[in-house]
Amino acid sequence: MNVKKVKLADIDPRFDGRIRPVVEAVAQIYAESFLERGQDTAIEVRYGSGEEGAPKFILVAGGHRYRAAQIAGWDALDAVISKLNADEARLKEIDENLYKHELDVLSRARSLYERKEVYLRLFPETRHGGDRKVGQVATVATCSPPRFAVDAADKMGISERSIHGYIALYRALQPETVRALQGTTLADDRAELLYIGKIEHEIEQVVLVKKALEAGKKPSELAEETVAAIPTEAMWLAMGRKAAAKIIKMDAPAQRVLLEELVKAGLIQRDQIVRGAVA
C-alpha cells in the first residue's frame, strides 16, 4: 500500500454529498488524538478530473479524519491514492458505511437505494433481462457478478426481500422529506417512515413531516390529534379551482395539517373551515 503525504488544499472532501455526514464532535475527538499520537490510519483519495481549476484529489474514505486535520491545524494528511473511478469510489464509500457503521433506518435505505443505482452502472449485465452484449453467453468461466439484491443481501447478512423493502421505503419519500428527517429520531423509526411514505402527494407529505417535527410528535400522532374539520368540495372550489384540484385529492390527515398551515399563514380564516365543513 503506497501512502503519501497529501495537502488538504489539494483534496475535495465533498462533505455535502457523503453518505455518512461528518459529525463535528466526532471530528474533534479525532483531532485531539492527532495532536496526542499522530495519524494512525491513512485516508483514501482518488484522482480528480485533471481539468484546470479542479481539485487534484477527491476524498474517498476518511471524512472525519480530514475534518480533524483542519481542526488540529494540519495542512496535510497521510493518504492512499487509489485508481478507482467515480462510481467505484462511491460504491466503496457506501459499502464501508453499510457494513461497518450502525446506520439509522433512513440512512440504510438511502444507501441501498444509491448502491443499486451505482451497482447497475458498474455491472449493467446484472439487470433482469440483460444489457448483455450480442453473442455473449454466460458461463461459469466468465465469473459474472451477482444480481444487485443477491450481492447486497449476502454482504449485509439479510434477505433479498429486506433489501427490496429498504429501497421501496426510500423511493416513497420526497427529497425534501428526507432532508427534514435526517438526524432526527424519526429517521430510525421504520414504522413511521412507512407511514410517511404512504402519503403520495409531495406537498402534503412534506407539510405533515415538518409540522410533526415542529410539534415534537410523530406524523401519525399529529394526524390523529389534529381537530380541524375537513371541508367539503364546495369549500375547496371557493378557494380556487386550481388549488382545489390538488388539495381535494389529499388524505384527510394531511388536509387537516395543511389547513392549519393555511390558517397560520393568514391565507384563510378558521371560520372558513367550519363553514366549508357544514356546507
Describe this structure in words.
This protein has 279 residues and is an alpha/beta fold. It folds into three domains: 3-83, Conserved hypothetical protein from pyrococcus furiosus pfu- 392566-001, ParB domain (Alpha-Beta Complex), CATH 3.90.1530; 85-132 and 140-171, no CATH class; 223-278, no CATH class. The chain is built from 14 helices and five strands. The chain has helices at residues 24-37, 63-72, 86-100, 105-122, 148-156, 160-171, 175-181, 190-197, 202-215, 219-225, 233-239, 241-247, 252-264, 270-278, and strands spanning 3-7, 11-12, 43-47, 57-61, 76-82. The protein has a five-stranded mixed beta sheet with strand order 1-5-3-4-2, with helices on both faces. α7 (175-181) runs parallel beside α9 (202-215) and α9 crosses α13 (252-264). The N and C termini lie far apart (76 Å). The model is unreliable at 132-141, 227-238 and 274-279 (pLDDT under 50). One of its GO terms (cellular component) is chromosome. This is Putative ParB-like nuclease protein. InterPro entries: Chromosome_partition/occlusion, ParB/Sulfiredoxin_sf, ParB_N.
